[in-house]
Every structure is written in structure tokens, then in C-alpha cells.
Automatic annotation (TrEMBL):
PANTHER family: ALPHA-1,3/1,6-MANNOSYLTRANSFERASE ALG2 (PTHR45918), ALPHA-1,3_1,6-MANNOSYLTRANSFERASE ALG2 (PTHR45918:SF1)
Pathway connected to this protein: Protein modification; protein glycosylation
UniProt EC number: 2.4.1.132, 2.4.1.257
Record-given protein name: GDP-Man:Man(1)GlcNAc(2)-PP-Dol alpha-1,3-mannosyltransferase
Alphabetized GO MF terms: GDP-Man:Man(1)GlcNAc(2)-PP-Dol alpha-1,3-mannosyltransferase activity; GDP-Man:Man(2)GlcNAc(2)-PP-Dol alpha-1,6-mannosyltransferase activity
UniProt KW Transmembrane keyword: yes
Keyword set, alphabetical order: Endoplasmic reticulum, Membrane, Transferase, Transmembrane, Transmembrane helix
All residue ranges annotated as the Glycosyltransferase subfamily 4-like N-terminal domain in the record: 14-190
SUPFAM superfamilies the UniProt entry points to: UDP-Glycosyltransferase/glycogen phosphorylase (SSF53756)
Length: 368
């Protein structure tokens, strides 16, 4: 069986790219198609992704890449429309929500399956990492472009034979915006059992590990830590102009910015933190809220979106209801009142294992 994998574009590694890695592990002979690739940004994924056979769209010849990624969104449907995958038996689209990969052309005997992390957030009113399209001089053009792209997105979304959503939250979006049913298969978290050394001595800090972008609300955590004199550690790579601006403004006697950390350092931070802060608004699913639980670390999350599926309230974490420094502090106060069982927290993380992910994907595909 000839298999192709399709992804928006390959730049910084995130949750969507981790899913693509797992799909490639399931189908090692699959060819990979994408708008364009930027290997120097692949970081920890470089060793594996650099071995792939990757086919790029004609978009790779456009100037000012990768800085102009968001500006080429209007052209991106054409990147995929000109990809002819009709010779493949199975095409699996990993839809990250940046471009429109469902537009690939397939043959009459080709089965098209889409694993959807979210419909494009910028089209449907959700916060995004890029703030350029919200600036006054860009907004009129952006609104016209988005009107066109919503029609294109809906049309392309009728092509897959099956939709798989990464959460019930995203399944609801698929139903609302695409009028399509979907199966839910939670994304995988790679659990390195050899690096779990039992209970770790807990530190006195709260932790955020994330790509540094505006939609993660990192500024709110910094404000809270400074206002209430709580220790906060932040790790992650700034993405784009907005990310670099956020990093410049991270300050305070109790706040420490660590930059991008390696895997061993990340595990140490997650294992020893008092709690992990998950602050994104309208989180699609939020694997960042699952990973701390692998190491028995509870999560303090904004009550919304996919966090409601990743965290069991008062068992593996707590929720707060107001996305302000004061609201976050109330969540921390609630966290302090409870006793935490690391074994219970770790057990919840096992729901999102690679084995369960692979099983779920195979069950959907076998039913085609």
C-alpha cells in the first residue's frame, strides 16, 4: 500500500509535528508532502525528520521565507491544490491549522484521512501566535482574505473520507465549521520510562514550558509572579516578533527565563516543579498540560478548551476561571489547599500514550 503524509509546513517543532513523527513511525515508507520545509528550525526533531523523503510545493520558491509565512496564507490553498497524490492508496493529512492541506488532489481509489488539530484558528475567531493580521493597516485586507479562505476551507474539508479530531473540543469545531462528523483520537505523548526515577524532590517554583508566543499568555504569569512574589520558571523558544517582544519583557526578582532547554533539562524541570501553568485561551487540546502529568506534576489550567479533557479537576490539577493575574493566583491558592498523589497524576497521563494513539488511528483506517 502506497501511503503519503501531508502537513501544513515544517518549521518549529510542536504538538502537530510530534503527531506527524508518530504517523511516520506507523508508516515508515510514507512520502511526506508539505508547503515548505525549514530544517534549521527543527531542533530536537532534526535527527529524525532529516531522514525523510519530503516533497515541497511550488511555494518554496517565493521570497522572504520563512518570515513571510503568514502573508502567504492566501496563496497556500494553491500550494496543495497542485499536489497530485492520485497514485497513493492512502493519504493522511496532518492538519495543524496554519494552511489548507486538505486541498491535495487524490485518485478515485485513494482514501483521504485527516487528523485535525484544529480548523484554522485565525479564520474562526480564536487567538493565534501571529499578531500581524490584527494590526489596523492589515485588518481590511485580512478580513477580505479570510472571507475567501473560509469558503475554500469549507470546500476542502468536504474532501476527506474520514476526519479524526485530536480532542472532543476540536471535534465540536469540525462539526460547527465543516458540518462533518469525526472520531476522537488523542495525540500521543512519548513517555520515556527509563527516565522516570520515582518521586522527585519538589522545588518551590511554578513552571511554564512552551513556545513563546502571544496566545500562550505568558505575560499574565509574569505579572502574577511579580505581584505575589511567587517563583516562576519559563522555558521555551520565542517565535516571531511577538515572541521576542515577550522575552524582552520577562523580568522580576522571582521570575527566571531559561530559554530553550534540552530534553534532560526539561524532564528535570517538569519532575521538580510545584505545578505547571497552562494558560492558553481556547486551547485545541493542550499536550503541554499532559506532559507534566507524566512526571507526577499537577497542572493549574485556565478552565477552557482542551484542558478540560487533559486535566482531571482536583485529581491531576485545578482550574481557574478568570484569565487575569488575580484569577491565576486564586487557582494557585486552590492548588495549595489540596493534597496530590503523583501515582494518580501519572496514571492519567498514560491515557495519552503512543500505543493508544496508534491503536486509535489503525481502528479508524481499518474501517474505511
Amino acid at each position: 500500500m502506497r501511503v503519503a503524509l501531508v502537513h501544513d509546513y515544517l518549521k518549529e517543532p510542536g504538538g502537530a509535528e510530534a503527531v506527524l513523527l508518530m504517523l511516520k513511525e506507523m508508516y515508515p515508507e510514507a512520502d511526506v508532502y508539505t508547503a515548505y520545509k525549514f530544517p534549521k528550525y527543527w531542533g530536537r526533531f532534526y535527527e529524525r525528520m532529516s531522514k525523510w523523503k519530503v516533497f515541497e510545493s511550488w511555494g518554496k520558491y517565493l521570497p522572504f521565507l520563512p518570515g513571510a509565512l503568514s502573508y502567504y496564507t492566501i496563496l497556500s490553498p494553491l500550494f496543495f491544490w497542485y499536489m497530485d497524490l492520485s497514485d497513493y492508496d492512502l493519504v493522511i493529512v496532518s492538519q495543524a491549522g496554519g494552511y489548507f492541506p486538505n486541498g491535495v488532489r487524490i485518485g478515485t481509489k485513494t482514501k483521504l484521512v485527516t487528523y485535525c488539530h484544529t480548523p484554522p484558528r485565525f479564520l474562526y475567531g480564536y487567538d493565534t501566535a501571529s499578531k500581524e493580521r490584527y494590526k489596523w493597516y492589515w485588518r481590511p485586507i485580512s478580513e477580505l482574505a479570510n472571507h475567501i479562505l473560509r469558503m475554500v476551507d469549507f470546500t476542502f474539508a468536504q474532501k476527506p473520507h474520514v476526519f479524526i479530531a485530536n480532542s472532543k473540543n476540536v471535534a465540536n469545531r469540525i462539526s460547527k465549521f465543516y458540518r462533518r462528523k469525526s472520531s476522537v483520537v488523542y495525540p500521543p505523548i512519548e513517555i520515556a520510562m527509563n527516565k522516570l526515577h520515582g518521586d522527585q524532590a519538589r522545588g518551590d517554583y511554578f513552571l511554564i514550558i512552551s513556545r513563546i508566543v502571544g496566545s500562550k499568555n505568558i505575560e499574565l504569569a509574569v505579572e502574577m509572579a511579580n505581584k505575589y512574589k511567587l517563583k516562576l520558571k519559563i522555558a521555551g523558544k520565542p517565535i516571531g516578533t511577538s515572541g521576542r517582544e515577550i522575552v524582552k519583557n520577562i523580568s522580576g526578582l522571582t521570575v527566571e527565563y531559561l530559554g530553550e532547554v534540552g530534553e534532560d533539562e526539561k524532564i528535570k524541570l517538569l519532575s521538580q516543579a510545584r505545578a505547571f501553568l497552562a494558560l492558553e485561551k481556547d486551547a485545541d487540546f493542550g499536550m503541554t498540560a499532559v506532559e507534566p502529568q507524566v512526571y507526577g506534576t499537577p497542572v493549574i489550567a485556565f478552565r477552557n478548551g482542551g484542558y478540560l479533557e487533559a486535566v482531571i479537576e482536583n485529581k491531576t490539577g485545578v482550574f481557574f476561571d478568570e484569565l487575569t493575574a488575580e484569577g491565576l493566583k486564586r487557582g494557585i491558592d486552590k492548588f495549595k489547599e489540596l493534597k496530590w498523589d503523583e501515582k494518580v497524576i501519572r496514571k492519567n497521563a498514560l491515557r495519552f500514550s503512543t500505543e493508544n494513539f496508534k491503536k486509535g488511528i489503525r481502528e479508524v483506517i481499518s474501517g474505511l
